[in-house]
Amino acid sequence: MVELSIITVNYNGLHDTCALIETIPFNEFSLEMIVVDNASKEDEAAIISKRYPQVKAIRSEKNLGFAGGNNLGIKAAQGKYLFFINNDTVFNYNEPLSTANAFQSIIDRLESSKEIGMVCPKIRFAWDDNPIQFAGFTPLSRLTIRNHSIGFGEKDRGQHNTAHPTPYAHGAAMLVKREALEKVGMMPECYFLYYEELDWSMMFTRAGFTIFYEPACTIYHKESQSTGSCSPLKTYYLTRNRLLLSKRNIPMPQRLLTYSYLIGLVALRDICKYTIQQKRDLAKAVIRGVNDFLHNIQGPLPTNYI
After folding, report:
1. Are 123 and 150 in contact (CB under 8 A)?
2. What is the pLDDT of residues 118-171, one digit of tens each?
3. Is the peptide bond preceding residue 253 cis, with omega within 30 degrees of 0?
4. How far apart are CA 247 and CA 164, in angstroms?
5. How does strand 4-10 pair with strand 132-134?
6. Is 63 within 8 Å of 84 (Cβ atoms)?
7. CATH code at 4-221
8. Cα–Cα 20 to 30 A to 231, which of 110, 189, 195, 208?
9. 71 near 92, Cβ under 8 Å?
């Protein structure tokens, strides 16, 4: 059996995906890499297969979303451990520790206890002096459905170099034990984009597993290359999926208070703000997000709306 399966989802992101592949130590570690092309405009799976014959590239004719694409990769994976990583990331960005050793460090953390089911590396941004993006998460507020990434925006001076449990995994990089995944189940596909890793983390916790942050491995994240930093697509899914996460994970009657806050305060505030700023596409995205949640519409946003 292959020790490590690296799974990434590609959507019109050939350049980023190839940059990631170039940093994978195929000859230094027992691994396979699986790229799921999530219905890109071109058949980018075919291009990747031709350019990198050592990569298992899978073409989906339908955009399955973040979770659906990763779940398709899971079905093809043979590794004892599965490493889910965004395609807009790279390894070994002038780091003294080799990528192969970094892989071993997070596997060792994963195997250090039967209770650990998932481990995330340190994540730094791939620009300027590479500030920290993630060194663990704080707990999620049941009212606002928000939390904070520890170390976010800080210069990395080694202040977050101690491994520790974290309540949630970061979707950009998650290492999972196969036996834990088989117990918990695959990623929830109802979100399509954003918040599925938080829900999945809660599924792991309910199944009795702990999630860890391990700084001995670092990845570098470009972020928001496929959806944009403030697009109607992102605004829609963030609006709808906060509500959906509440529905799936917060018990009554607390959930009603959360709905009141997210719809009556946050959504209304955002609609007014975007309207005043003449960003009507974003205001429409908020309205559509609330409406689709209330009507239990969980499919992907129509392309003609995007």
Report:
1. no
2. 999 999 999 889 999 999 999 999 999 999 999 999 999 999 999 999 999 999
3. yes
4. 29
5. unpaired
6. no
7. 3.90.550.10
8. 189
9. no
Tokens at 154, concatenated:
């800080």
Question: DSSP labels for 53-92?
Answer: TTEEEEEESS--HHHHHHHHHHHH---SEEEEE-TTEEE-
- The tokens describing 117, both together, are 């089911």
Amino acid at position 249, single letter: N
* Closest by CA position to 127, among listed 88, 96, 163, 183: 88
Amino acid at 112: S
* CA gap 233, 12 in Å, rounded: 15
Residue 29: strand, helix, or coil: coil
Q: Please answer whether residues 266 and 246 qualify as being in contact, where contact means their C-beta atoms are separated by less than 8 angstroms.
A: no
Residue boundaries of the structural domains of the chain: 4-221, 232-294
Q: How far apart are CA 234 and CA 286, in angstroms?
A: 10
Q: Is 295 helix (H, G, I), strand (E, B) or coil?
A: coil
Q: How far apart are CA 234 and CA 226, in angstroms?
A: 10
Contacts of 87 (CB under 8 A, 6+ apart): 8, 9, 10, 13, 16, 17, 20, 35
Q: What are the C-alpha distances in Å from 143 to residues 100, 257, 260, 287, 305?
A: 41, 7, 9, 20, 30
Per-residue model confidence as pLDDT tens digits over 226-265: 455 678 999 999 999 999 999 999 999 999 999 999 999 9
Distances (CA, A) of 289 to 211, 241, 248: 30, 8, 16
pTM here? 0.93
Q: Single out the residue of 115, 111, 109 nearest to residue 163, CA to CA.
A: 109
Identify which of 103, 110, 112, 81 has the alpha carbon closest to the alpha carbon of residue 182: 81
**Burial 93-119, CB ≥16 within 10 A → b, else e:** eebeeebbebbbbbbebbeeeeebbbb
Within 10 A of 51 (CB to CB), how many other CB atoms are there? 12
